[in-house]
C-alpha cells in the first residue's frame, strides 16, 4: 500500500480548535483520494464523489477562515484570502480536467506532491499566524 500524502499525526495543532478539526478532515479526505488514485493503477469508481467532497470541503474551509478574518479584522486578510482563492481555483481546474479527460496524471501529482507541500507550508505560515490572532481576539472556540 502506498504511503499517505500527509500523515495525520504530523499536522500541527493550532490555537483554534475548529481549524484543527477542519485540517484533520481535509487530510483524511486527501489520503482517501490518493488511495483511490492508486487502486490497481487506475482510479476507483468513487473518485468523482471524493473529488466533489474535497471541493466542497475546501470551499467551506476557506470561506469559514475568510469570514473569521473579515469579522475580526485580521490585518493580513487580503493575502491569506488571496491564497485561498488561488488554491481553490487550481483544485477546481484539476478536478474539471479529470472529469473532462479521465486522465489522472496532473491530479495524482497534485494530491501526492503539490498539495501536501502547500498544506504544510500554509499551516506553518498563514494559518499559524491567523490562528494566533483569532485565538487572541476571539478565543479558541470559534465556529
> Residue ranges: pLDDT <50 for 5 or more in a row?
none
Structural class: mainly alpha
Terminal residue distance: 36 Å
Estimated share of beta-strand residues: under 5%
Mean pLDDT: 94
User: Which of globular, elongated, flat, extended, rod-shaped describes the shape?
Assistant: elongated
* Number of H- or I-type helical stretches: 4
Structure report:
By secondary structure, the chain is mainly alpha-helical. The chain has helices at residues 17-38, 47-71, 77-101, 105-138. It is elongated and about 50 Å long.
Task: Quickly list its features.
143 residues; mainly alpha; 4 helices; 0% strand; elongated
Sequence-ordered SSE layout with sheet pairings:
Elements: H1 17-38, H2 47-71, H3 77-101, H4 105-138
Amino acid at each position: 500500500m502506498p504511503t499517505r500524502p500527509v500523515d495525520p499525526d504530523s499536522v500541527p495543532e493550532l490555537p483554534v480548535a475548529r481549524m484543527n478539526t477542519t485540517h484533520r478532515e481535509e487530510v483524511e479526505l486527501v489520503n482517501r483520494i490518493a488511495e483511490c488514485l492508486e487502486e490497481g493503477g487506475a482510479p476507483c469508481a468513487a473518485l468523482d464523489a471524493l473529488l466533489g467532497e474535497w471541493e466542497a470541503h475546501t470551499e467551506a474551509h476557506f470561506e469559514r477562515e475568510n469570514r473569521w478574518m473579515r469579522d475580526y479584522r485580521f490585518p493580513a486578510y487580503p493575502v491569506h484570502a488571496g491564497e485561498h482563492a488561488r488554491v481553490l481555483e487550481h483544485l477546481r481546474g484539476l478536478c474539471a480536467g479529470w472529469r473532462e479527460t479521465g486522465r489522472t496524471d496532473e491530479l495524482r501529482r497534485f494530491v501526492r506532491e503539490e498539495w501536501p507541500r502547500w498544506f504544510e507550508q500554509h499551516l506553518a505560515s498563514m494559518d499559524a499566524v491567523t490562528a494566533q490572532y483569532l485565538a487572541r481576539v476571539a478565543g479558541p472556540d470559534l465556529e
